[in-house]
């Protein structure tokens, strides 16, 4: 929502200032220039990005308009879910986690936290994190390194969307110059009609304006927002990584989730008492 509000402010400020200074906003609208800039920009994006990046970019932009997916409530759900899993593993042994890790959609623990269960990527990461512990395929001290390696790979993959936005933002001013040059060529080839020269030069310059405006008014801020949203989103993954690593090396369930809690930003971090109370309620319910 804030993204839409920001974009409206950018457009109103730009066009409004142009009108106040005596300009006619209609003079900024030229179908040919818009087609050149938007078409070349889209083509550059398609040429430079594989299908997976384009799909990820679409998803990230939708999330940006929705205001991201990070919320304090979901962080608390994740921490309490981890606590329940760790308590089960502590009481009955880690093999007892197998039924929950193997089929999270039908797990009596996972289904209590729909905000977590609806995030397929996070569910997969948590289950993959617990499987080596359940199966006993590696030493507890090795779990942290395995999870960090996977998390690094996931972050690099997600960062491709940001790089795509940055690339197209860098290209748009140059594309605007291309549109302007084409407009000047069109003007120079029709000098037999002097009365049309002014309008055609204005159309050509509008191409430069549009390219720079889209790059600095929309593209770069959008890329920054997507980057911030991804940073927030990956806090969930870092909680899982730190908490599971701590539990694997012998920390108590409450201390393992406490490590995860402390990795959160202050604005979304539940207090230690708040988390402890939620964990106690979950333990009573279990």
Characterization of this structure:
- By secondary structure, the protein is an all-alpha fold.
- Helices cover 78% and strands 0% of the residues.
- It has eleven helices and no strands.
- It has helices spanning 2-20, 31-48, 51-66, 72-92, 98-102, 114-117, 120-135, 140-188, 197-248, 253-262, 272-285.
- The longest helix has 52 residues, at 197-248.
- The model has no long low-confidence stretch (mean pLDDT 87).
Number of helices: 11
Structural class: mainly alpha
Number of domains: 1
Q: Flag low-confidence runs.
A: none
Q: How would you characterize the largest beta sheet?
A: none
Defining traits:
mainly alpha, elongated, about 80% helix, about 290 residues, 11 helices
Topology (elements, then pairings):
Blueprint: H1 2-20, H2 31-48, H3 51-66, H4 72-92, H5 98-102, H6 114-117, H7 120-135, H8 140-188, H9 197-248, H10 253-262, H11 272-285
Helix pairs in contact: 1-9, 2-8, 2-9, 3-8, 3-9, 4-9, 4-10, 4-11, 7-9, 8-9, 9-10
What's the short story on this structure?
The protein is mainly alpha-helical and 286 residues long.
